[in-house]
């Protein structure tokens, strides 16, 4: 039985980790921390967990967490980097759902996150936890930087085209839409029902923190710098990310390639992936079909048979975009079946 | 392995049965019928099921269904009563999620459902599938009439008070609100997003089909006829029922009884029930906390310490109000653990 | 031209006042105050007003407000009572949308609002601004206490029955549902999209601040104390209140009275009211049909012909439940047509 | 007083026309037709109109409509083209909100709309009713083809860039999102609350009927054929369109041009337009800020100072995208003030 701890268990990624881990046959949730709610039963804050989680919030101290085999950070940015080292030296695996270890360049991290990085030395040790790219490294990792929600949807959508040099990597466009839970469980005007409901808008068009993360991942795949325009939008709903990706098709030297070839390429690329599902040609993935599940559903289009390839990629931002992917990483690290605890069917309707 | 068939697999209760049964360790979904979609893969219609259900819709004929140990009817009213007998004579258990066998009085059934009952003789044989009332009878049953969604929420909320003679049974009020999925997967103007979204209304105030079913159940508990005003409302959301129940408190002959006594009574009544959860005093159950789960959460209030008792009772109309309860019945019939396949945590947020 | 000031122009009732007054032919919005946003253009905060309001937020001081003929308080409770007297002595009419002057009993006010009342002497001078009850007094008033949103919907629904002694006033039940905008524009967890969306719950069952206000109004109509159970609920939508009201029918001494008689009574009671609309028998008012308008739509039911009368009453909580009613009061005070600036048709769909 | 008729008054654009025209000081709604509901009062179907529209649905025959000065077609595609000529010969102005006269090429129309065009001769006579492009022609027109909702948002967003040759017109991308009311008031599974709520998807990526209309309009502005990728999406809400437009910036021969220059260009282009509002630099228009109003709000971005220009353009699909624009056209034709009846402030929140 793996003993798991969750630091910052009161946010949406925290409670989502609890939803998944509570039913994971090989995990015991041993510690859940919260500064604000220490002493309170977890299921008093989250009645959805009644009967499945018998834990009280504790203060986030290293001694308490030391009884764990793995510690998840479901904290705001800037917390994991303060505590990770102390856990790692005790041999505890660390899986960070925040952004602290996602960017390989500490200076760029500081630029986007507005603070100095507290442990830049650890950055190189951290493995970017996108199993569809880094599976073998993850299995050996002590410290995992779980990808952001937008970066997961965008990378899984673009990767096969980029890895095969089929699109002009200087002119990528990612028009991405997210449900409000992506903003977290914070008392803010902007995500009130009365502000977000029955309305839609873009935000952070001038630059969103997930931009450098996506560029880093796609550049790694392309083996040269990519040019990306990334526009995030806020949907009047709770869960779900839909990425609409545009690439200019580049016919390879060896000759013609058709939409059917690209479809086959995607199916081939992901055929052993438990959580990436390439839909039949002509499909339009719907975020509801992955709601609550760890799946990414993808479809490929070439409108009017022209030069632009359109990839549609959907995930649940709290699952494949956060807690589910974190558990997938945990499974890999501990040698469990990759889908242990993650056989969850989306809630439709 | 129990071989299960689903007649009418294209509606919301059908797909919800599939979501639950696909992960039920002791069930194999052998047959799913649909007249309209026969020949189509089930997961082509419901992409949320991709990778978990490998079945093609077939025509609803008795021969095909005869390979099953149990057949669920997730059909419109009036279908199960035409097929149940042929399955029962073959020794197949029948669990009907429609209303065909819920009312014990065939004439009243005809009055409310607008058609003759096709097999009135079977009615007396049918067991009303509310495990919290009829558990032992369910275990022996061949034919189960699964309760309606409103009746489940209302009965579980009122039962302890009525069974103990603590409220005036002549003046019960049930003000109940349901998500739009309760109307089913039918092409109708009234449940369009543009009609139902951002709006709220009562409907069928003069008389809803679930009224006689609730009266029948409460009368059975009270051992004398009850008087009930039942007003259903349509919520601008998909899943969830919230019953707000009002009863005039009747102090029993033996003396004073307090809200704390009533709280204790509810906790006692449901302490062995896996799926009925009495919340702490002062709580307000939220439908999201049971969304996707088979739970009913209940809280008890006595506003201003006055004579009126207010019971709040929430369920997911598609789970405890339909498919989950049906599987709970199946588990009882086949001697499985009552919560087999039903350990599902609500999707929050 | 009436010069209007709005104190507290950054909340939802404030911006709704602006929406209405900006197009009111006989009003000029002269002052809009906000401590937090002083110096900012109003339409910078509220882009929906661009092109219609050319005002900058100012600090809420008496001198600035003294240029107005009327000042609306769209402030949190406890602000209007600190400033009203200084405006009144300057001959400025005060229309308070907050609760400061709604309750005639200062001690009860303190009990429910958790603070001492700052000017109890003004309370008796304040006129409760429900035109359908107090029209003549409103015309003469210097200080208006605008009714709360729930109290407006409940009183308009119950009044004809109570005024005519047709229901048992000791056993009134008001099961009322409100959109999230009723909670105001405040950064709070409870009204986040992720908390409120796709979910429904009751709240404050033990006692809500609008309870004493409703009891006060109904008691005034009944001429003796009423007994009321009031249960508010939060809807997963933005605007709208739906009151479902239950009364035990009392046949009057003079003999039989039918549902048709009650229908006629309601039509008669409200036939000269521009903003109360009694629907045809059998109707179910839908909150969308009053969204954005100053209307209250009402229908009357007697389920199964039994003893319980069910009244359905809907308003837009921000219009007839707040800003619209405030303008209706202003029109009366200044001798304008009662519907001036209020001929707004609900936004459907 | 202009006598107006509406053919097809039971859909969402029909009822929206009624909402606007009922309060238009210079219009009398004389005829509203509906085959299905002839004989029924209009406000019986649409209770939001009670007290403002005193008309009964009539059958759509030419004689009845001949009493009108102008007839709006709010019908499904294929109806206006059967009746327009008979009205035009009687000197009645025709404003068609459907697609019948939008495309100048009858064969292309047939290709996209799946039927023969019934009166190709009228097409050249029809004026495309986008006042921001065709104002003078509209004033002289007998027959107006109102633009589609997507085409309105996309054209208004792209026009200043294209008219000034600032972007590569061969590689335009329009990623556009619409509320569910765009699908009309039709009993269809796809737009049920349970299908559309809490979910998001693209649709018709291979080719949507509005594609040729947008290309026609942009090609007219560019004076040479444009290349456009257009991906429509369905939002889980009722009203609103948000277009996110991407263009590759082309520095003109005469030298550098900055984002500030483009901002100034947009402000200049639309400075006399009552209904197009260019927001301050850095803004993100929100669909709620135009909900119910005839406004288009636009902002311009150049993410990271790179080569891609991103234009955000929002409208209410039923107002500027349909009924409001139709009334704007009517005002122009009859020499009224262009904003007569259209001074409507968006409903926020």
The protein's oligomeric status is homotetramer
Name the CATH superfamily assignment of the largest domain in chain A.
Dihydrodipicolinate Reductase, domain 2
CATH architecture of the largest domain in chain A: 2-Layer Sandwich
Using the CA coordinates, give the radius of gyration of chain A. Answer: 20 Å
Average of pLDDT of chain A: 97
Q: For the largest beta sheet of chain A, what order do the strands appear in spatially?
A: 3-2-1-4-5-7-6
Q: Can you write the helix and strand succession of chain A as a string?
A: EHEHEHEHEHHEHEHEHEHEEHEEEH
Number of domains of chain A: 2
Q: Can you tell me the overall shape of chain A? A: globular
- Tally of DSSP β-strands of chain A: 14
- Overall structural class of chain A, as computed from helix and strand content, comes to alpha/beta
The main sheet of chain A comes to: 7 strands, parallel
Task: Using a beta-carbon cutoff below 8 angstroms, give the protein chain pair with the largest interface and the number of residues from each chain.
Answer: A-D, 48 and 48 residues
What portion of the residues of chain A fall into strands of 2 or more residues?
15-25%
Q: Fill in the CATH topology of the largest domain in chain A.
A: Dihydrodipicolinate Reductase, domain 2
The top-level CATH class of the largest domain in chain A is: Alpha Beta
Q: What is the helical fraction of chain A, as a range of percent?
A: 25-40%
Terminal CA distance of chain A = 35 Å
């Amino acid at each position: 039985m793996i003993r798991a701890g969750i630091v910052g268990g009161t946010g949406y990624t925290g409670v989502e980790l609890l939803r998944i881990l509570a039913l994971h046959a090989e995990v015991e949730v041993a510690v859940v921390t919260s500064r604000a709610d220490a002493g309170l039963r977890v299921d008093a804050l989250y009645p959805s967990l009644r009967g499945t989680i018998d834990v009280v919030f504790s203060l986030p101290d290293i001694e308490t967490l030391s009884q764990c085999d793995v510690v998840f950070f479901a904290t705001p940015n800037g917390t994991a980097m303060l505590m990770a080292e102390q856990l790692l030296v005790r041999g505890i695996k660390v899986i960070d759902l925040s952004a602290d270890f996602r960017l390989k360049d500490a200076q760029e991290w500081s630029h986007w996150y507005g603070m100095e990085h507290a442990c830049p030395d650890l950055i190189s040790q951290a493995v970017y936890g996108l199993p569809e790219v880094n599976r073998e490294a993850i299995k050996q990792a002590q410290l995992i930087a779980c990808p952001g929600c937008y970066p997961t949807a965008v990378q899984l959508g673009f990767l096969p085209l980029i890895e095969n040099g089929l699109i002009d990597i200087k002119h990528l466009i990612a028009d991405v839409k997210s449900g409000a839970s992506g903003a977290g469980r914070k008392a803010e005007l902007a995500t009130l029902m009365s502000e977000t409901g029955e309305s839609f808008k873009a935000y952070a068009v001038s630059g969103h923190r997930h931009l450098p993360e996506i560029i880093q991942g796609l550049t790694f795949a392309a083996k040269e710098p990519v040019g990306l325009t990334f526009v995030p939008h806020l949907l009047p709903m709770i869960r779900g990310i839909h990425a609409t990706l545009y690439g200019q098709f580049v016919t390879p030297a060896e000759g013609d390639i058709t939409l059917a070839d690209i479809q086959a390429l995607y199916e081939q690329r992901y055929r052993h992936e438990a959580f990436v599902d390439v839909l039949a040609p002509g499909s339009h993935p719907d975020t509801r079909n992955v709601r609550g599940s760890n799946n990414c559903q993808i479809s490929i289009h070439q409108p009017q048979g022209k030069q632009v390839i359109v990839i549609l990629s959907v995930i649940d931002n709290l699952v494949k975009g956060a807690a589910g992917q974190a558990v997938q990483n945990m499974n890999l690290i501990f040698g469990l079946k990759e889908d242990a605890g993650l056989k969850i069917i989306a809630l439709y309707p």
